[in-house]
Specification:
The chain is an alpha/beta fold. 18% of the residues lie in helices and 24% in strands. It has 3 helices and 18 strands. The strands form 4 sheets. It has a 7-stranded mixed beta sheet. A 5-stranded parallel beta sheet has the order 2-5-8-13-16. The radius of gyration is 18 Å and the shape is globular.
Length: 203
């Protein structure tokens, strides 16, 4: 009998490019496996084009195409207003009762997780991918995940940078650029974002 609790581990040399990308490894355009990654990027280009040219107000139809984009069915409570932009799509995870307003960009190669009851304002940028600092490596990419915890609200035009967690119930003010983790139950704003005030809960 097999042990269902056993997890498989891989050495660095055994990881495919998708695992290496999500683990924060520098990925070069010359990587021999890069064409596999690029196929997903091309799929995202095609699917977002379909999503953004739908002539419908049928949210179920919109959610069906979005589910195809991310490779898993979104909950029926998910509501998005296209257009929507992504460079990858398949590393996006969406919880229940999530609202994403129009013209948002999710660059998700590092992984984007949005928990339940999150509000995403218009033109929000969730960016998980960056470039190395050294000029000789700058055309390569390096990715780190973003986590938006339950109940958070990301204001219009805010940008969340790679590796950031936004805490439960917290608010990111309009136009903020968030480069560091945000604690639970606070409001942050500015460039770079700093804590403005704490949110007092009645429960």
């Amino acid at each position: 009998m097999s042990d269902t609790n056993t997890t498989t581990t891989f050495s660095e040399s055994e990881k495919d490019i998708f695992a290496r990308d999500q683990s924060g490894e520098i990925i070069s355009l010359n990587d021999p496996e890069y064409p596999q990654l690029f196929k997903v990027i091309q799929k995202a280009i095609r699917t977002t084009a379909r999503l953004n040219t739908l002539v419908t107000d049928d949210q179920q139809e919109i959610n069906t195409v979005f589910s195809e984009l991310i490779g898993r069915k979104v909950d029926d409570t998910f509501f998005i207003i296209p257009p929507f932009y992504t460079d990858f799509g398949e590393n996006i995870t969406i919880g229940k009762n999530v609202f994403v307003n129009h013209a948002c960009t999710f660059m998700d190669r590092g992984g984007i997780t949005i928990e339940d009851n999150v509000l995403i304002g218009p033109k929000v940028n969730l960016i998980t991918t960056n470039h190395p600092i050294h000029p000789s490596e700058r055309r390569a990419t390096i990715s780190h995940p973003i986590l938006i915890k339950k109940g958070a609200w990301i204001g219009v035009g805010a940008t969340i940078l790679p590796g950031v967690t936004v805490g439960e119930n917290s608010i990111v003010a309009a136009g903020a650029v968030v480069s560091k983790d945000v604690p639970n139950n606070v409001i942050v704003g500015g460039i770079p974002a700093k804590i403005i005030k704490e949110i007092q809960l009645d429960y």
